[in-house]
Amino acid sequence: MTNAQMLDTHGTAAIPGDDVISRSMQIFKTVAEVNRAWEGTGLPGEAEVKPAPGNRGAVIKVDLRKDDEASYEHAFSPYKGMSTSQRLESALRALKGTMEAGEVATVEGQSSGRQE
User: What is the model's pTM?
Assistant: First the structure.
């Protein structure tokens, strides 16, 4: 078995390959509200929204095809991160913050509080 084959499987369970970027997040809103909000972002990706366990909102899972990664660059440019994966997570955090608190929390522009 080659190293590449060993990375694709673990025991008998298949591990997702490197061809998909996937991120998920729990949002304390209904499935319908999260679906509408995601569609309103205009961001690429296939979103799957399901009820969260224990009737605690919804879980959104977004998948992006890695072979189309260059086409995502402009859509995710407002979000923080060095990679598309990090920017997708940042976009989901922004969506969560906007839906739950009405704003996106940030520490940008704040001083560190250190005496110089």
Answer: 0.75
